Amino acid sequence: MRKICFAEFGGPEVLQLVEAEEPHASPGRIRIAVRAAGVNPVDWRIREGQVLGAHPVELPAGVGLDAAGVVDEVGEGVEGVEVGDRVFGEGTDTYAEFAVLSAWARMPEGLAFEEAAGYPSVVETALRIIREVGVRPGQTLLVSGASGGVGSAVLQIARERGIKVIGTAGAANQDYLRGLGALATTYNEGWVERVRHLGRVDAALDLAGSGVIRELVELTGDPRKVVSIADLGAPQLGVRFSGVAGSVPDALAEAVDLISRGMLHIPVEKSYSLTEAAAAHTDSRAGHTRGRRVLVV
């Protein structure tokens, strides 16, 4: 099978499309014929060699956590899923023609593989950081870097829970944020004052790692009311860095519910082929994403 891997840490040029042995479903796992794989910032952070304790790497290594596809092997002890089912979920080395998933759910009716691949890690992360930051219905949550996949999920989940959201993003994505129910402003000079004019901030999330931790603490008045998923230096300022996933099966179940009720939709900004994995990483790292980027296999 074809698979993306890297033998050394570095830039996107270290990604190689190779012929590899097919993985197989071990007990408690399923294997899918991958139709699409989600492209997440954690993918290129791992490829660069950033120290992420939740994702230890042994070289050479594959790439990718999220995927959607068709079940073609069911491991011992697995119930409730059969060969031929359309599923999406999280596993390992998903930039490939076949991948083993450790958590999965049947895809909601009407959802394309390309769309489904963009949800698993994104929704788990959004649910986790909303919980960790402790924001409650009726309060206001500030989301820095709100137009990407996680931000898109946070805005919609918060709205569904009765939480007011202020989102920052580039000028081109202001209407997109407003369409998701957020009060929107750009993140260029003067953004802190613009946020203050939009209202009191009870909690804040840093999704872009753009060096705004001090300002988020200033706006909330308490480092314990700020959570980052992108700035590894956040703990030095008393801010929690959230990088360890919670229950992915629970997150997938909630994603299915929200999608099925029309309460969650994350657009696919751009699709890439496996041969374009390096370009996908380059674009993801550059930011300014509206929704998700995925590889179509």
Task: Please describe what this structure looks like.
This protein is of the alpha/beta class. The protein folds into two domains: 2-118 and 266-296, Quinone Oxidoreductase, Chain A, domain 1; 124-241, Rossmann fold (3-Layer(aba) Sandwich), CATH 3.40.50.720. 28% of the residues lie in helices and 27% in strands. It is built from nine helices and 15 strands. It has helices at residues 41-48, 113-116, 120-133, 149-160, 174-179, 191-198, 213-220, 248-260, 277-286; strands at residues 2-6, 16-19, 30-39, 61-62, 66-74, 86-92, 98-106, 140-144, 164-168, 183-185, 203-206, 226-228, 240-241, 268-273, 292-296. The strands form three sheets. Strands 3, 5, 6, 7, 14 and 15 form a six-stranded mixed β-sheet that branches. Strands 10-9-8-11-12-13 form a six-stranded parallel β-sheet, with helices on both faces. The chain has a three-stranded antiparallel β-sheet with strand order 2-1-4, with no helix packed on it. A hairpin with a 5-residue loop joins strand 6 (86-92) and strand 7 (98-106). Helix 3 (120-133) crosses helix 4 and helix 3 (120-133) packs across helix 8. The longest helix is centred in the middle third of the chain and has 14 residues, at 120-133. It starts with a strand and ends with a strand. The mean pLDDT is 94.
Classification by helices and strands: alpha/beta
Question: In DSSP terms, counting alpha (H) and pi (I) runs of 4 or more, how many helices?
Answer: 9
- The CATH level-2 architecture of the largest domain is identified as Alpha-Beta Complex
Number of domains: 2
Distance between termini?
11 Å
Mean pLDDT over the full residue set: 94
Give the H and E element order.
EEEHEEEEHHEHEHEHEHEEHEHE
- Whole-angstrom Rg: 19 Å
Strand content: 25-35%
Looking at the structure, the CATH topology of the largest domain is Quinone Oxidoreductase, Chain A, domain 1
Question: What is the helix fraction of residues, given as a range?
Answer: 25-40%
Number of strands: 15
**CATH classification, class level of the largest domain:** Alpha Beta
Low-confidence segments: none
Largest sheet: 6 strands, mixed
Identify the CATH homologous superfamily of the largest domain: Medium-chain alcohol dehydrogenases, catalytic domain
Q: What does the overall shape look like?
A: globular
